[in-house]
Design goal:
Elements lengths: L2 E7 L6 H4 L8 E7 L2 H11 L4 E5 H9 L5 E10 L7 E3 L14 E4 L5 H14 L7 E4 L7 H5 L8 E4 L6 H7 L4 E3 L21 E3 L4 H12 L4 E8 H6 L1 H31 L7 H5 L12 H13 L9 H4 L8
Helix pairs in contact: 4-11
């Protein structure tokens, strides 16, 4: 008899094979739900709507640090990005280099979100710009945010203003009230108000002229490819059925392999038609996303350190406190 579980994640090619049933989880009957990440994290942290869910890594370890034991982590990592390389600034802000952010008014969708955590970590360790050096303006309200569900308070020495509901990060960037913004989300949703394509607006540009080159530089120097989202499972389920943890990870590994294979198949088609150079085969055949603790330990430990350094957690949360015991050797 299969165990019935509800699962929720954002739409992502690496999770589609689980959603559409091409990949089955041994011994489990899943009821899948596609939910936008911002809404999903708020719902899961506040209401624990699902048995298994995609989750903001930053918000998850903050919840753990405050004694929330409803969930344990699964080392399934659906999204990764060099978030700091996509900082946006006004062209008239006078911000030409990361160090110029000191003393500036900076917008953020949510202060504690993982993308913002990684951005502040890079600014601090690469250019000496600390969280306290900027004046922060946060869009999400306490009743519709990860922080509202985890009891967020601005860290000591850091100024975080709440953006009025009639405004947004986008509107304040365009009016000049903000000079920069990090991890901008230009898609309005239940929890987000901004809906302007700032990246392609004539008054706005990326801080780094070549975000891709900056991401490569950061990776080569640090060896860290930032993780944004992981997954969690109800603690009571993981403790009662530890095999479920292993079978879920195996299923998402299989889904990951399918996504890689399909990407290469699309590449081969376009190579055959002459629309892509043959060299694209080597680049697109590379597996970028790896699940598991072993492959991601340095990145996860770096995120936990950043959280402590930035005053979001009172201590560095060890990985064996965050993740299911049966997953630690995977």
């Amino acid at each position: 008899m299969s165990l019935s579980l509800s699962i929720a994640f954002a739409s992502n090619p690496r999770t589609w094979p689980v959603f559409d049933g091409r990949v089955r989880v041994d011994g489990v009957e899943l009821t899948p739900n596609i939910v936008g990440p911002s809404e999903l994290f708020w719902r899961q942290l506040k209401y624990a709507d699902f048995d298994v869910a995609e989750m903001s890594f930053s918000s998850f370890i903050i919840a753990i640090s405050k004694g929330d034991r409803r969930f344990v982590g699964l080392p399934i990592f659906t999204t990764r990005r060099f978030f700091h390389s996509h900082i946006l600034v006004r062209r008239d802000s006078g911000i030409e280099a990361p160090a110029d952010l000191k003393g500036k008014r900076v917008g953020v969708t949510e202060y504690q979100q993982t993308g913002a955590l990684w951005t502040r970590g890079a600014l601090q360790h690469e250019w000496g710009v600390t969280s306290a050096d900027c004046e922060w303006f946060m869009e999400r309200t306490p009743d519709l945010s990860h922080g509202g569900a985890t009891g967020f308070k601005p860290p000591a020495g850091v100024t975080v203003h709440q953006i009025p509901t009639e405004k947004s990060v986008a509107l304040m960037m365009l009016s000049g009230e903000l000079q920069a913004c990090v991890h901008y989300r230009g898609h309005a949703s239940l929890v987000n108000r901004s809906s302007v394509d700032l990246k392609n607006h004539p008054e706005i540009r990326t801080l780094f002229p070549d975000p891709r080159a900056e991401g490569i530089r950061y990776l080569e120097k640090t060896g860290v490819l930032p993780i944004n989202h992981g997954m969690v499972i109800r603690r009571e389920i993981a403790e009662r059925h530890p095999w479920v943890v292993i079978n879920l990870i195996k299923a998402f590994n299989e889904a990951n392999q399918i996504a890689d294979r399909e990407r290469l198949e699309h590449c081969e088609y376009h190579i055959d038609t002459g629309l892509l150079p043959a060299e694209a085969r080597t680049a697109l055949a590379k597996t970028v996303v790896h699940h598991g603790i072993i492959a991601n330990r340095k990145t996860l430990e770096t995120a936990a350190l950043h959280s402590f350094e930035q005053g979001l957690t009172p201590r560095v949360i060890p990985l064996d406190e965050a993740f299911a015991p049966s997953s630690m050797d995977m």
